[in-house]
């Protein structure tokens, strides 16, 4: 174990390991690209669904069941299935990552909308606001802390799972894990895993701090 950890330390601080197309810097940029793009696409799909369900109160079972679906989703199996249908491309990876992120965003958006005090909605309608004004000027601002929590959770899940890009011969930090397994290089495998974990933790802490700063005058959101 000591030799493994010593090798990991040398691997992480080696200057050669941080340069070139196979360097940590380049792989990190690829990993973040996959993760951010997938999360943005998931948000574009999930936010309208969560807002609509929360505003109308219809289809609540969708939000509830999506949470269980997201936890049970076989991500690698979905990648393989789409890979067989579409061939060698990033599409399988993006589809799997988007499918993973959507449930967290939908459920937290729905939870944020339902947490809005009904008397506040009634007061807004009593002032003559139309449905879209109530939605965007009253409900959405009040639900925003929980919505941001959902976005944060989705991004962290995607970052932790984006290693599957290497499963279909693309880049990202997962390249170290899969290449290390193929080469029986435990130091490289551990290095890739540690880097993914560090990125997820740093992003989580940064987004949590940003969320606390933005909503410091509100009660802390609950996921």
UniProtKB/TrEMBL annotation:
Keywords: Membrane, Transmembrane, Transmembrane helix, Transport. PANTHER family: GLYCINE BETAINE/L-PROLINE TRANSPORT SYSTEM PERMEASE PROTEIN PROW, POSSIBLE OSMOPROTECTANT (GLYCINE BETAINE_CARNITINE_CHOLINE_L-PROLINE) TRANSPORT INTEGRAL MEMBRANE PROTEIN ABC TRANSPORTER PROZ. Belongs to the binding-protein-dependent transport system permease family. It is a multi-pass membrane protein. Residues 32-211 form the ABC transmembrane type-1 domain. This is ABC transporter permease. It is found in: Cell membrane; Membrane. It comes from the Bacteria. PROSITE patterns: ABC_TM1. Its main location: membrane. The chain crosses the membrane at residues 34-54, 60-84, 91-111, 158-178, 190-210.
